[in-house]
């Protein structure tokens, strides 16, 4: 199995990559950019954490670059429809993609006939932020820790029922399968249409457990409607210091995060891509924006494009192993 490399190590591994000269940002192609509005395609529905970050960045970019940055939601097919539209867009910098990493890191393995290639068709601008997953159980499940949960799951006379929302290969599905591979218990996946439905299934007791995106879990856990056992991040989060990590509970090095990433179609002039990278990173380093992201249980990253390539490559290799080992198939 491909080893999971901690995020900090990945970032450090590319820290020596030469920083692109800011002169590129004032190169010939970038001198007049943007001369009209820029479209940011979000390949998931409005209202979620991804949409929140995209609109926050769009507002900041519009302020700094003096042109409108307009978010367009194009959901469908686990993010593949919107990603494909951007892959085929004119590479002039006026159509960008702001997506979860999954269309780039999961879909190529899950969908053999994917109409775009994540390496060939896109140029990363920046990984903007990441979010962890939370291992949660219904309050009736008699466990209070990850160790107890694993023992409970192993001693059931049937596979543990766990839910996830958003189709095969969604973050909750992948994270639980990855954890099952590490912990060695049997589980039966119960797919739900979306995150709201799996939350209802968990709260209602139709399934016993699940990995849910931390931004949506905290209110339910603090209300006592679910029990949050651990985060999938390597360290405890500032926004939820009361919740431990899976690493703390005996699974050293276990780290799963999903990324919010800005990309352009391949072929955009390097001066424009570098300008966008600089502006996105500067926006994400503002204390005000970092506070707003952390209030949504998102961790700012503000990577370079080079760092983004390494992060995406590592995630792709991990999920390829999980999908093949667990025999995950598209619905």
| Model regions low in confidence, pLDDT < 50 over at least 5 residues | 15-26
CATH superfamily of the largest domain: Bordetella uptake gene, domain 1
**Overall strand count:** 10
Look at the structure and give the mean pLDDT: 90
Percent helix range = 25-40%
> What proportion of the residues form beta strands (DSSP E)?
15-25%
Give the CATH topology of the largest domain. Answer: D-Maltodextrin-Binding Protein, domain 2
* Largest sheet report: 8 strands, mixed
What class do helices, strands and sheet pairing give?
Answer: alpha/beta
SSE series: HHEHEHEHHEHEHEHEHEEHHEH
Rg from C-alpha positions?
20 Å
CATH architecture of the largest domain: 3-Layer(aba) Sandwich
The CATH class of the largest domain is identified as Alpha Beta
Overall geometry = globular
Number of domains: 2
- How widely separated are the two ends? 25 Å
Detailed description of the structure:
The protein contains 13 helices and ten strands. Strands 1, 2, 3, 4, 7, 8, 9 and 10 form an eight-stranded mixed beta sheet that branches. A two-stranded parallel ribbon has the order 5-6. The protein has helices spanning 7-13, 28-31, 49-65, 80-87, 102-105, 107-110, 146-155, 171-183, 195-203, 214-222, 270-284, 287-295, 305-326; strands at residues 38-42, 69-73, 95-100, 122-137, 160-165, 187-192, 209-213, 227-231, 257-265, 299-300. By secondary structure, it is an alpha/beta fold. 40% of the residues lie in helices and 20% in strands. Helix 1 (7-13) crosses helix 13 (305-326) and helix 8 crosses helix 13. It is globular. The chain folds into two domains: 7-130 and 258-326, D-Maltodextrin-Binding Protein, domain 2 (3-Layer(aba) Sandwich), CATH 3.40.190.150; 132-249, D-Maltodextrin-Binding Protein, domain 2.
